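queue> pop job 88
queue> type: inverse folding (structure -> sequence)
queue> payload:
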């Protein structure tokens, strides 16, 4: 059944729809899983040195196409091109690391027991189904895919719908490096087919990076199928500043950490809990550094803050800020831009956040571009 064009590649700065992709059909679903299984049966028989050789080649290819990768990331999800290329650099380093160390990590190791001989032995398990997000669309699939493939497994990537072209570019890079039998595939599965893939006997393991609620659903489905699952989920740990801290330095690092990737990083500092004796000093320093941020066309090299990745995320942020204000939160600073276009949400510093509010308790990285939140003590 053709479900129509549902994976949408849309530039968040210009709002131009660059490309539309239909969901995979049932026949395409089976073809992808069958191809991954067939590739696994061949790939697992390769020596570590043969796999490592391809990873080293992948590192060189991605370095040579770094600018192309950066531009695609920027066009699909708005990350400034000045930093988007860092994903390619990181992947190249990762390839060489596992090419050099993979065999060592996977070699047999002896264990002292009462038995005559005891040892730990590692074997590949088969195709890995990966559901990955949009905020690091090249790096995050590679981060889990490279060690899995080095270990002899194959990898099926279900990307976020708005970074589909980046996902196919990554597949192209793997294929150019010699992983061209289906060791790395991009799968445009809808939620139903993704659920089917988790339960499918042709899939041996599952990995997911994203929100806690979705991770819970995926873990439940994987558990029901008795499959190995790896989850990397978001959080909202506090950034605590005590009165004896070097406030200027701390404020700068807090702001730079918060606006990295235009505020869309799950591990960035989100909510700042400041000793009330230095909160004014911290706010003033944070405003200074927030005001220095340059917004604009993310394809321009001197821009360090881009638009939100998708319209639904932009709308949710606006609503969350409005809700926080209705509960008594105050906007201390907003970095407005007279020529703002696309899905630009101004970096914002808020204070007087209620301890029970969504901003204080919720996980809103990757969604909420609040630059700094100051939670005053009662």
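queue> result:
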């Amino acid at each position: 059944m053709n479900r129509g064009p549902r994976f949408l590649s849309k530039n968040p700065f210009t709002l131009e729809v660059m490309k539309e992709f239909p969901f995979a059909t049932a026949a395409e679903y089976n073809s992808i899983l069958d191809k991954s299984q067939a590739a696994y049966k061949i790939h697992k028989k390769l020596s570590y040195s043969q796999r490592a050789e391809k990873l080293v080649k992948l590192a060189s290819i991605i370095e040579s196409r770094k600018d192309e990768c950066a531009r695609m990331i920027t066009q699909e999800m708005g990350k400034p091109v000045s930093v988007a290329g860092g994903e390619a650099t990181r992947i190249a380093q990762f390839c060489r690391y596992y090419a050099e160390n993979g065999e060592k990590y996977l070699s047999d190791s002896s264990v002292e027991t009462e038995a005559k001989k005891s040892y730990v032995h590692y074997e590949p398990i088969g195709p890995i189904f990966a559901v990955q997000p949009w905020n690091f669309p090249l790096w995050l699939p590679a981060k889990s895919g490279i060690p899995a493939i080095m270990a002899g497994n194959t990898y099926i990537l279900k990307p976020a719908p708005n970074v589909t072209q980046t996902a196919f570019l990554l597949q192209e890079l793997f294929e150019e490096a010699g992983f061209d039998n289906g060791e790395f595939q991009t799968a445009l599965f809808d939620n139903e087919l993704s659920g089917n893939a988790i339960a499918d006997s042709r899939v041996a393991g599952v990995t997911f990076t994203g929100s806690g609620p979705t991770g819970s659903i995926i873990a439940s489905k994987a558990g029901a199928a008795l499959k190995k699952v790896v989850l990397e989920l978001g959080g909202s740990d506090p950034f605590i500043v005590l009165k004896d801290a070097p406030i200027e330095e701390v404020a700068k690092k807090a702001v730079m950490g918060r606006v990295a990737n235009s505020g869309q990083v799950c591990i960035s500092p989100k909510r700042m809990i400041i000793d009330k004796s230095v909160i004014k000093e911290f706010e003033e320093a944070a405003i200074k550094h927030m005001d220095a941020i340059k917004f604009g066309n993310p394809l321009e090299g001197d821009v360090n803050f881009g638009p939100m990745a998708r319209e639904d995320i932009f709308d949710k942020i606006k609503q969350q800020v409005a809700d926080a204000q209705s509960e008594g939160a105050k906007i201390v600073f907003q970095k407005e831009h007279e020529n703002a276009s696309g899905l630009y949400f101004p970096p914002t510093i808020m204070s007087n956040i209620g301890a029970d509010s969504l901003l204080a308790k919720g996980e809103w990285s990757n969604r909420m571009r609040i630059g700094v939140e100051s939670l005053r003590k009662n």
